[in-house]
Amino acid sequence: MEKDFPCVEPLQKDKRKEMNQTDFITAVFKRNTTCFRGFPDKQIAEDFIDELFFFLFGTHEKKLGQDKLEQQYESIKSTFSALLYELIKDEALVKQHTRSLFDAIPSIYQHLLLDAEAIVKFDPAAQSIEEVLVAYPGFYATAIYRISHQLHEQGIRTLPRLLSEYAHSKTGIDIHPGAQIGDSFFIDHGTGIVVGETAVIGNNVKIYQGVTLGALNVAKSAASTKRHPTIEDNVIIYSGATILGGDTIIGHDCIIGGNVWLTYSVPPFSVVYHKSEIQVRDKNPLPEALNFVI
Hints:
By secondary structure, this protein is α/β, with parallel strands linked by helices. It has 2 domains: 38-171, Orthogonal Bundle (serine acetyltransferase, domain 1); 179-274, Hexapeptide repeat proteins (UDP N-Acetylglucosamine Acyltransferase, domain 1, 3 Solenoid), CATH 2.160.10. Helix content is 44%, strand content 11%. The protein is built from 8 helices and 14 strands. It has helices spanning 13-18, 21-35, 42-57, 66-88, 91-122, 129-135, 137-153, 159-171; strands spanning 174-175, 180-181, 186-188, 194-195, 200-201, 206-208, 212-214, 230-231, 236-237, 242-244, 249-250, 255-256, 261-262, 271-272. The longest helix is centred in the middle third of the chain and has 32 residues, at 91-122.
């Protein structure tokens, strides 16, 4: 029977002690040259997505003429093709995937402008779309998501996740490329947001920092099932809220308050909030005794 993880060869404790530096470097070299065949180059992938993002939204592009922009766009295509060839080693398939991605870029660009407009419309601190495009981490994470989602839909493995994790490392926002997100998506602040692989998010949804759209069951056997919630149109989810489960549906036009924990569906036009008790007392010289158990 084939191993689930053929490149993993656990070492016995005594062998760990016996391995000298030369043996260790040999083992690392052997494993990396064998097991990472067919994986994209991480640095080239990051360079590609940065080049594409700054082509679409970088302030320096206004200094270039249209002919230079066309040359730059073709260069980005070439970078992507070279990156993808290392992954699939099939020139015809590389051309097909490259064409599919770049045919979709104009539509992705329009979607992203709608996302930026939503941020300007609902964030009082946002002064202009241009400010959002160059300075907002929520927009950046959404942009990388929309590009990586296109690659995910094309059936390309590993690369979409590599790009989404790059955005995660830069913004603190973790959106799986398999998630489905509608138009005019609004992320404010964004730090700590998690959107799982099978989450479905409608149009005009607003999400604040610390929100989790997660799974109730993280067992490997559930990998092919819908594990993450569905968020319908015009929903607002405030900071710290956690919504779990593939059968959980948040109806349209709901407001989910901060720190709410939900594992069941909510009908449209609902307001869900967490009620906590806060006690305030004065600092008198003889406060009530506090008992601590350590």
